Amino acid sequence: ACIMSMSVHVGLLSGHSCVVDTDAALTVAELRRKVQQKLQIGVSAFVDDSGQLLQEDQSLSEAGLQDGCRVTAAASSVKLLGSRMCKAFALLRPEGSVITWGAAGELCRGEMRNVEHIAASVAAFAAVQEDGKVVCSGEPWAGSDCSSVSEQLRHIKTVRASSTAFAALTELGTVVTWGSKSSGGDSQAVAEQLTGVVDIVSSWSAFAAIREDGSLVTWGDVYRGGDSRPVQKELRNVCHVAGTLMSFAALRKDGSVVTWGEEWSGGDNTAVTDALQGVQTIVASSRAFAAITEHGRVITWGDVDSGGCCNSVQPQLFSICQVCATDRAFAALRTDGRVICWGNAESGGCCDQVQSQLNNIRQMAGSSCAFAALRSDGTVLAWGDPRCGGDSSEVEPHLVDVVQIYASLCAFSALLANGDVITWGQLYHGGGDSASEYHWQRLTDVHSLQVVPDLLRH
Questions:
Q1: Where do the Ubiquitin-like domain residues begin and end (predicted)?
Q2: How deeply is 222 buried, as exposed, middle or buried, from its count of CB atoms within 10 A (0-12, 13-18, 19+)?
Q3: Residue of 331, 334, 309 lying closest to 390 (CA atoms)
Q4: How many other β-carbons are positioned within 10 Å of the β-carbon of residue 61?
Q5: DSSP sequence for 358-406
């Protein structure tokens, strides 16, 4: 039989579009997979020019599609949230309700409605509702009790978390904090300086706020990055900040880097100061930093056993577009889709067992001691400590058409194009079948993805 080639123009309501070269005998489901790979989002359905919904099992010719035709892809609105500091995952559904699973899985979900954003500490969630108010749930010791500042939690734009405290950024550029004082839950000492704030970043037990003039304000544990006074004069024109357990690194607009906090935990970058030029972004493990330069190279410093030295793989670290971290290792993604690892072998710093398969990678995630990588064909590879999600063999048959992967402390969740969520790793931390057991049928209609900041744990 003659196979008729054809081009299909696919558009999203967001304005994004692509052209897919295919053939008329392929099904609508196969077209969906091709579009997902091109646009790197989940697609739940297609509608033709007449408004008719295309059936998944129909061939393109049976659906009435012709060469050069246009269809609209329907993307949905579920958000899956995870953090490698937290022991749980949260799913934000289209109508704004929240489902959680893992250690914090039995939270008071009924109170979380009309939610737009969620932040996670080690065992608590803080959710920003569409009316700008904040609702918390989880363990009180981890920051779930915001009653002391409830009246101030109005007109909130976003929330950030340290290990056991939260900091909320208001629409006016001020900051409201609560939770453990030793982890940054009390910002009274710097309250007058917390104006014109545009972003907040955390270490394990401190916060750093970037102001609109490029200056920085810190508070929390003074031994873990909460005191930036020694380098305050250098903290100008700051555009990005990253935090390890005990230190911070600030990227300035000129591409230079300023560090402070515990020296052995990345707070001292003097050994690589000359090399830290033209830096584009910084990623943190628990005790080390990795900076990507404008030329696609990687510069590291901090604890050697936490990935602070990449000399063994330096020749391979070129054309780097993404770096991901576990507690004690890093994985770098090159523009050719290959992945290079270094750091503690048991924490994912050695990927020899899967190296030959680590190609065509487009996204990575790191738990405390394992990595997962999403390939362009929608399949997933995992390596590192099996107890932390480094072995995905049991769910491998189900890891197809994956759109995005997320990590908690010791588990991973994969969001599929059809809205299902596949989990693996420790059940207590959101792995195993913890999502499917309670919520499998409820995880549908996916396209909009969001991850809470990649924070650290003790």
A1: 6-71
A2: middle
A3: 331
A4: 14
A5: --SEEEEEE-SSEEEEEETTS-EEEEE-GGGT---GGGGGG--SEEEEE
Task: With beta carbons less than 8 A apart as the criterion, state whether 334 and 355 touch.
Answer: no
Alpha-carbon distance of 94 to 197, in angstroms, equals: 29
108 inside domain: no
> Does 129 map to a domain?
no
The Cβ-side half-sphere exposure at 64, using a 13 Å CA radius, reads 12
301-339 confidence digits (pLDDT tens): 999 999 999 999 999 999 999 999 999 999 999 999 999
Where a domain ends, among 56, 74, 92? 74
Q: Which pair of tokens denotes residue 25?
A: 């005998």
For residue 425, what are its two tokens?
């790793």
- Integer Cα distance of 130 and 107 in angstroms: 20
Domains held by the chain: number: 2
Tokens of 224: 């873990």
Q: Amino acid identity, residue 138?
A: G
Provide CB contacts within 8 A for 54, sequence distance 6+: 28, 45, 46, 47, 48, 63, 65, 71
Q: Which two tokens stand for residue 58?
A: 């129909």
Residue pair 243/220 in contact by the 8 Å Cβ criterion: no
Q: Cα–Cα distance between 400 and 413 in angstroms, integer?
A: 13
The domain of 286 spans 228-309
Whether residue 203 contacts residue 162, with contact meaning beta carbons closer than 8 Å, is answered with yes
The whole-number average pLDDT for the span 148-162 is 95
Domain membership flag for residue 60: yes
Query: Is residue 253 one of the residues assigned to a domain?
Result: yes
Euclidean distance between CA atoms 63 and 245, whole angstroms: 55
The dihedral built from the CA positions of residue 290, 431, 165 and 158, taken in this order, carries a sign that is: positive
- Return the CATH number at 30: 3.10.20.90
Coil, strand or helix: which one is 195? coil
Q: What is the CATH number of the domain that holds 302?
A: 2.40.10
Query: Strand pairing partners for 177?
Result: 167
Which of 41, 74, 107 terminates a domain? The answer is 74
pLDDT of the residue at 30: 84
